[in-house]
Amino acid sequence: MNQHNQSSLRRGQTVLPKHRFGIGMRLFVSFVIIVGLAAGASVVGWLSYARLSGELEQIAQSELPRLSLASRLSRVGADISAVLPSLARSERAATYEAARAIYSDRLVELREVIAEAERNGIGGGELDALAEEITDQVQRMDGAVGVRFALLGEMRSLVDELRWVQADLLEEAGPLVDDIRFNVEKELADFTGAAPLLAENQKSEALLTVVAQANLATGLISRVSGVTTAEDMQEAVAFLGDSTDELAARVQSLTDWPDSITVRQLAGRILEIADNRDGIPHLKQLELEALAEAQRVTEENQRLVEQLGEEIRAEVSETERNAEAAAVRARQAIETGRRWLLLIAVLAITSAILIGYFYVYRSLLLRIRHLANAAANIAEGKSGTLIQPQGRDELGDLATALNIFRRTRDDLIQSAKLAALGQMAAGIGHELNQPLAAIQSHSHNGVRLIEQGKVEMARQSLEKIKGLTGRMAGQISHLRRFARRPETRLGPVALDEPVNAAVSLLSHRFEDEDVVLEVEMPTGMPAMVTAESVRLEQVVVNLLANALDAVSGLDTRHVRLVVTMQGETVMMAISDTGGGIPHSHRDVVFDPFFTTKAPGSGLGLGLSISYNIIKDFNGSIAVRQTNSTGTTFLVTLERAS
């Protein structure tokens, strides 16, 4: 592009030639060629596919609906088969009702699909008969499961009662054992013979055996209520019978002991619950029989569903054969037109390759890729990116515009830093004036001390002057480093260095505005991040300066900077005690030129530039929280080794 166009672009105006063979005209010519070939192919295809339409119409109007209905029947049958096992295995009425509701919905859907299938000539009545049989089996299932749930409920009630009886038995036996112990001790003290001691010992043995057998019987009854097979039931009942026989014998031995009446009554209730004729074993036997009946119904239902599946598969096979025959005829019609289309296809492919390689790839794609890479480099903050315009078309104009954009972006970032330095000018002057005044005082004192022959004291004044000049040189060097254009290469940076440098730059504002600053850094090893020191310092300066502005003029003026490490990330939170960010501003605080400050107090670029800098570091910056008591900005960076 010539010098006139470049200068016009710098003024924001793009001057393009009125008449040139640019991208638009070249694409139009290519489009005409491709459309011409496509039109020829369309004519040949229309003539060939006219024969095909009849076959496709037959498939679409006859075979596809039949195949769709057969597929729906197969799906509904599979759904019914999937629900069946959960009906017989349900342990709660609510679970069964939920599965039963799903099963009923599937049966209704099955009948609807069967009715539609028979209207289309599928099934011939056999499917409806199978559906009726499946419905009858489900009603049998309802009866068996209802009986089973009633028995389960009665058993649960008896088991609950059994636990209370056991607890009462243990509670009643305790005082009796204490009485026996007391009587034994008394007889031993008054020893009147062995007979009373033997009687007390027999009562104690009988009582403890009753308690032990009652506990054993309770456990065996609970085991009986939970068995799932006839074999387990037979084994558990045998053990229970032995235990109850021993319990009954021991209860009988306590008959002559009046104080044991409550224990005998409670043990008797345990024996009633354990009775094979009307207790839990009897109820469990009935429940297992009901479960077996439900399983038989389930197996019969499963057989009917499988038979339904066989009928559906037969219909699907017939439909597939008809569709395959129609497809063969369609392939024959297609083969005729294929030969005619081959020549046009070869011409179209050849033209597309020539246009695609020589124009689209070489003249457009490579240049666009070059521009995209350059734009990505600019977005990553690589200021040294320079784009060489190639060609006298729109892409050449875009390359020139990107160069101007790169320079403008770099200038804006530099302007923001210089603006920040300008805002700190008064504080910088204060930082330099203090050591200058001290130097003047020490130099004056040094002269007087030399005149008085106090060389050692004069040397001390000169040493102080040397230290002050070193401090001033360090401050000026720091300002020069902050103001210069940053490096584009990223690398490991100790986060405490840019943080301390930023705090040093703004220290005068913290002192002048009486703002309390708290900085918390990790102890031990420094927090290393992947960044570039100067740009990272600029981000910290921007955030701290915004925090100072937020607390300006308030009664409570606190700013806090906290750095933490978590896994492979390092987080820096900067908080203030200002008035917070209004809700309407939260979505635009990072937009360029957005500011709430008075005119002339800021460019509105600080947060926008900080956002892009942190993004260049593969990090993130966001408003972590904000309310009427303050705001916290959170910067997240990659941790460097």
UniProtKB/TrEMBL annotation:
<dbReference type="GO" id="GO:0016020">
    <property type="term" value="C:membrane"/>
</dbReference>
<feature type="coiled-coil region">
    <location>
        <begin position="283"/>
        <end position="311"/>
    </location>
</feature>
<dbReference type="InterPro" id="IPR004358">
    <property type="entry name" value="Sig_transdc_His_kin-like_C"/>
</dbReference>
<dbReference type="Pfam" id="PF00512">
    <property type="entry name" value="HisKA"/>
</dbReference>
<dbReference type="InterPro" id="IPR003594">
    <property type="entry name" value="HATPase_dom"/>
</dbReference>
<feature type="transmembrane region" description="Helical">
    <location>
        <begin position="340"/>
        <end position="360"/>
    </location>
</feature>
<dbReference type="GO" id="GO:0000155">
    <property type="term" value="F:phosphorelay sensor kinase activity"/>
</dbReference>
<dbReference type="InterPro" id="IPR036890">
    <property type="entry name" value="HATPase_C_sf"/>
</dbReference>
<keyword id="KW-0902">Two-component regulatory system</keyword>
<keyword id="KW-0472">Membrane</keyword>
<dbReference type="Pfam" id="PF00672">
    <property type="entry name" value="HAMP"/>
</dbReference>
<dbReference type="InterPro" id="IPR005467">
    <property type="entry name" value="His_kinase_dom"/>
</dbReference>
<dbReference type="InterPro" id="IPR003661">
    <property type="entry name" value="HisK_dim/P_dom"/>
</dbReference>
<feature type="domain" description="HAMP">
    <location>
        <begin position="362"/>
        <end position="414"/>
    </location>
</feature>
<dbReference type="InterPro" id="IPR036097">
    <property type="entry name" value="HisK_dim/P_sf"/>
</dbReference>
<keyword id="KW-0597">Phosphoprotein</keyword>
<dbReference type="InterPro" id="IPR003660">
    <property type="entry name" value="HAMP_dom"/>
</dbReference>
<dbReference type="InterPro" id="IPR038188">
    <property type="entry name" value="TorS_sensor_sf"/>
</dbReference>
<feature type="transmembrane region" description="Helical">
    <location>
        <begin position="27"/>
        <end position="49"/>
    </location>
</feature>
<keyword id="KW-0812">Transmembrane</keyword>
<protein>
    <recommendedName>
        <fullName>histidine kinase</fullName>
        <ecNumber>2.7.13.3</ecNumber>
    </recommendedName>
</protein>
<feature type="domain" description="Histidine kinase">
    <location>
        <begin position="427"/>
        <end position="641"/>
    </location>
</feature>
<keyword id="KW-0175">Coiled coil</keyword>
<dbReference type="Pfam" id="PF02518">
    <property type="entry name" value="HATPase_c"/>
</dbReference>
<keyword id="KW-0067">ATP-binding</keyword>
<keyword id="KW-0547">Nucleotide-binding</keyword>
<keyword id="KW-1133">Transmembrane helix</keyword>
<dbReference type="GO" id="GO:0005524">
    <property type="term" value="F:ATP binding"/>
</dbReference>
<keyword id="KW-0418">Kinase</keyword>
<keyword id="KW-0808">Transferase</keyword>
